Amino acid sequence: MSRVLPYPLLTASLIVMWMMLNAFSLGHFLLGAVVAILAGRAMAALQPSKPKLRRWQLIPFLIGIVLLDILRSNIAVASIILQGRRRERVAGFVAIPLDLRDRTGLAVLACIVTSTPGTAWIEYGADSGVLLIHVLDLVDEEAWVTLIKTRYEAMLMEIFE
Amino acid sequence: MSAAILVWSITIAQAMLVIAMACYTYRLARGPRAQDRVLCLDAMYVCAMLLVLTMGIRTGSSLYFEAALAIATIGFVSSIALAKFLMRGEVIE
Amino acid sequence: MMHAEMLPAWAALLTALLVLIGAGLTLFGAIGTLRFATFFERVHAPTLGTSWGTGAIVLGSIVCFSVLGSRLVVHEILIGVFITVTTPVTLMLLARAVLYRDRTEGNAGVPARLASRREQQGRTEAEDGDGDAR
After folding, report:
1. Scanning every residue of chain B, which has its alpha carbon at the shortest distance from the alpha carbon of C83?
2. Per residue in A24-39, pLDDT tens?
3. CA nearest C113: which of A132, B83, A90?
4. The complex's ipTM?
């Protein structure tokens, strides 16, 4: 099993992608499976670190929260842009000490933070575990630290660690 | 009736996307530094991809989807290469 | 526009609304890049277009083609997934490059380096961490 399918999740998602691009039929399933298994073995040759999913049930929940948050900050940033210079606004950097160490978890957190308008991932110090983000509308630094830590980091640690 | 709604809304949407591309072009020309230009190029390929997608809805042909996917892929790779170039001045380290 | 005549009114309205929202958000993002004064503020503006700007137009396309073909057409989701995964990678790499450039030139308004101790090792490890996202 592990020799033929070193990365079952990758293989499965490649098959789904193949069938989405072509058609949902038996022939395309078989063709996609051949391509996906070969791609999985090619990936094994690269020897990436294998992510461990501990509680995958939480993933749909996380995706829902993130989509809603992105929608909310879309509206917030759009209103900032429309208001222009009429309102006093301070942009700045916030340093957040992270407890999350899992690489996949950090990668997912980076995607969440950067794709949310209003926050951008700038730098992460791997030895100190301090993350630097840039916030467009900085009112309260503490609020941002607790938001990132309680809303996303806690859930990512449950999923990946 | 539904055709009129669709045609008008898509025409307006395409106009908005073109204006957005014009804004990015202005920022691209003005700079002030190389990173602003790379950011604008990155945003412009997303706009172009969305424009192709709206063309697809307008004509009802799914061929435009493939074109949009190709634009997204190539745009991603080129922005990565440009950002990497800014870091050290060399694409491959 | 033969295909549009076959679309029921509710689907046409929904598609029109989603496409207009998406294009509007993208336009706001573009205006934002013109208005903001510094680069780190401008980084935030295009994410309007790449998050729900793209999302709304992709959803509109899904609604339109699903109703037309009277079956669920979901391949447009691939574009949405691709854009959500790739944009953060590009922006993060760009932000790091700008940070590096500003620090070497000694510009004001940039925070000092986080990892002073074992900094070389820390930097290479952080770069490996980015590799997972790609």
Report:
1. B72
2. 788 888 888 888 888 8
3. A132
4. 0.84
Tell me how far CA of residue A142 lies from CA of A96, A139, C40, in angstroms: 9, 9, 20
Residues of C in contact with A126 (CB under 8 A): 115, 121-123, 125-126, 129
From the list A63, C54, C94, the residue with the least C-alpha distance to B69 is C54
**Mean pLDDT over the full length of chain C:** 77
- Which other chains touch chain B, taking contact as 3+ CB pairs less than 8 Å apart? C
β-bridge partners, A135:
A92, A119
Q: Could you give the number of structural domains in chain C?
A: 1
**A121 and C95 in contact by Cβ < 8 A?**
yes
Map out the domains of chain A as residue ranges.
8-46, 56-160
d(CA A106, CA B81): 23
Q: Residue C129 pLDDT > 60, yes or no?
A: no
> Which pair of tokens denotes residue A83?
């208001």
Cα dihedral C51, C54, C59, C62 in deg (nearest 10): -140
- Nearest Cα neighbor of A149 from A90, A108, A98, A112 is A98
Write the DSSP symbol of residue C75. Answer: T
- Residues of C whose CB is below 8 A from A84: 35
Closest chain B residue by Cα to residue C36: B27
The reply to whether A81 touches chain C by the CB within 8 Å rule is yes
Nearest to C74 among A20, A70, A93 (CB): A20
